[in-house]
Amino acid sequence: MTFVNAHAEGVLPKRVCSKQDVLDYLNLTRDNEKFTTCRPALDWMHPTILYIDIYLYGILSVIWNNERISWNPQDFCGINEVILPKEMLWKPDLFVLETAEKEDGPLSPYLSISHDGKVIMEDDHKIVSTCTMNIHKFPFDTQTCHFTVSSINHSDEEIKLVPASNASKVTQTAREYLMTQGEWEFLNISVSHQRENFNGRTFEIIKYTISIRRMPLMHVINFQLPILFFLIVDLASFLIPDRGEKLCFKVTVLLGISVLLLLLNDILPSKSHKCPLIAMYVIVIFSFMLLSLLETILVIHLINLNSEQDGKEPIQRPEILNTLRLGGTDTPNFETDKRKADCISELEAPFESLVLKEIYKEKMNDVHLLQIILEELQSLKQTLVLYAWKDNNHQNMLAL
């Protein structure tokens, strides 16, 4: 402390103070092991209470009381707070149990102490932790991640952990600082105080549970709706008249579903306790489309099999026509021949029309059609021979 001399009598001198005066008063230096090595308690049986607060961006705030530090602010021009490097004071050995990687975030090198011995330390931690995920309702799932803070070496008899803020305050603070949410929507943060036994010693822990919910809009648009559209297109393919084009179309749609299944495999975690509902949704649609493809293949096989059987069956002639064309004696009778000719004229035309109708109705192949034409030509030849024989007999009778 320094004093400024007064230029006139009757004027009190002005006192000028610095924070170094406070450090000199406390004998707080880097070489003073009293402030760096031991826990700041005058009585070793008196525990040090740590007030812990956490923010969503990884800022860990710790407040405790150093019983070796105190001064009167009036003696130092109203100075009630001093900022010091962390190496000059004792710090609690806190860690996060769920940390999966080494912290690489920027750490603040300073802490602040007040005139009553209260020490405030804030660290900006970038914590990469592991969380157990339940993707049964993906993409409409809600996940919870836990951050457990505890001391490594000090039991509950030496250090007591107390949450500095309740769950509602922590949640409100996180909402104020949270500018963007990306794929996840922040819900709330809950705080719980617990004790755990380890090697016969009891340690206090504070567990922060962060609840987040996935935003499903992009997953619905990019994945679920295309699969539903594929199913609708597959059902509409039954209206395709050509069976070959229908089969090719169904196979193409099935391959499209297979590509979407590969995308789903990349999105979902490799391990899960329950089958996700979206996987069951895709499997059911894939099964329907596979059954539709098998049904189309079976129908085409049955139609081709029926066509082959129709091509192998000969056309059955009436017995009377076969008798007229093939039967008879070597010396035919004129009356008998006349009746035969009348029967031929009455049966030939209806039979030919019936054959033509059967040809167009059954859509016979070319080989079957040529076989029918050959049989009709043979029948026509036999008819002409019969008429020629009848005319010859008639002329012979006139000659007699």
What does this structure look like?
This protein is 43% helix and 21% strand. The chain has 400 residues and is of the alpha+beta class. Strands 5-7-8-4-3-10 form a six-stranded mixed beta sheet, with no helix packed on it. Helix 3 packs parallel to helix 5 and helix 7 runs antiparallel to helix 8. The chain is rod-shaped, with a radius of gyration of 51 Å. The protein starts with a strand and ends with a helix.
Features:
400 residues; alpha+beta; Acetylcholine Binding Protein, Chain: A; Methane Monooxygenase Hydroxylase, Chain G, domain 1; 3 domains; six-stranded mixed sheet; four-stranded antiparallel sheet; 8 helices; 12 strands; 43% helix; 21% strand; rod-shaped; disordered N terminus
Structure, briefly:
With 400 residues, the protein is α+β, with helices and mostly antiparallel strands. The chain has helices spanning 19-26, 167-177, 217-236, 243-267, 277-312, 319-326, 334-362, 366-399, and strands spanning 2-4, 14-16, 48-54, 59-65, 81-85, 94-96, 110-114, 118-124, 142-151, 159-163, 184-198, 201-214.
In DSSP terms, counting alpha (H) and pi (I) runs of 4 or more, how many helices?
8
What is the top-level CATH class of the largest domain?
Mainly Beta
Q: Which structural class is indicated by helix and strand composition?
A: alpha+beta
**Can you say what the CATH homologous superfamily of the largest domain is?**
Neurotransmitter-gated ion-channel ligand-binding domain
Q: Which CATH architecture of the largest domain?
A: Distorted Sandwich
What is the CATH fold-level name of the largest domain?
Answer: Acetylcholine Binding Protein, Chain: A
Shape: rod-shaped
